[in-house]
Amino acid sequence: MTERAEPGEDMALSLRDITVRFGGVCALDHVSIDVPKGSVSGLIGPNGAGKSTLLAVASGLQPVDTGRILVDTEDLTGARPQRFARARMSRTFQAPQLVPEIDVRQHILLGLRSFRSQGWNAKAGALVRGITRSELDRAERLLAELGLSEVARRSPMELPLGLRRLVEVAQCIATDPRILLLDEPSAGLNRVETQAFAAIVSRLSAERGIAVLLVEHDMDLVLEISEQLFVLDFGELIASGATEDVTKDQRVRDAYLGTVKEGA
Ligand SMILES: Nc1ncnc2c1ncn2[C@@H]1O[C@H](COP(=O)(O)OP(=O)(O)OP(=O)(O)O)[C@@H](O)[C@H]1O
């Protein structure tokens, strides 16, 4: 099912000529993007532009009508989401996929064992039993790194949305991803929480060499942390490249960034 493809040495994820149609709607129209290793890329565009569809394609959740998906050097087109996870691809969802029955630390322990709480059941609960000292230490370090130590023993459902999103990110990080897809992580966060979140994502990407692809409507956040930008409009990629170049592109400014001032 998977085969070696031509290596995009600096690219963690390459989507080539991706088309996805839902009946008469062309959600993605021959879109190609390259997400570099170890940096943050922003994926922006108005409502309905195809951003969520592209993330679903990139994580193996959405079949494509045309195109190829290369993760590092492997062609995973048509592979199941589990195969993407084995290729060290991890993602968050607009509604964090967390469960009330296990505490924050147990979510991290699941992540360390390469499980997500998505589809959690009694079997997954058993997976966090018999944990080793080393796993516990790693979980505690990660909790501290993301500022979650104080809430480690609480159910994520008792926490405000901003912390729930961080728990999901922490669980993703625990799986030791090469690629992290973030779907509107700042939705529902206040300015201070968004700033804190931005700092954490930038640091994790730089320190751990994670390629981050960020779908986000908060342009301040996107422009602050993204080294590259991809701009979708009605399923079409209208611009891509270094953030400072893309934000000067007249078509992008007209379609989406009308309020961004020169030099922003
Ligand atoms: N499962 C589906 N069935 C039918 N149409 C869909 C489906 N998913 C998405 N679409 C359509 O595909 C287009 C792209 O949707 P998508 O959710 O990817 O956009 P988006 O950029 O993520 O939007 P938003 O910013 O509002 O989340 C839209 O016209 C949407 O209505």
From TrEMBL:
- Under what name is this protein listed? ATP-binding cassette domain-containing protein
Superkingdom of this entry's organism? Bacteria
SUPFAM superfamilies assigned: P-loop containing nucleoside triphosphate hydrolases
Q: Where is the ABC transporter domain?
A: 13-259
Q: Give one GO term, molecular function aspect.
A: ATP binding
User: Keywords for this entry?
Assistant: ATP-binding, Nucleotide-binding, Transport
Gene Ontology cellular component terms for the protein in this record: plasma membrane
**Statement: the UniProt record of this protein carries the keyword Transferase:** no
Organism equals Peterkaempfera bronchialis
**UniProt xrefs under Pfam families:** ABC_tran, BCA_ABC_TP_C
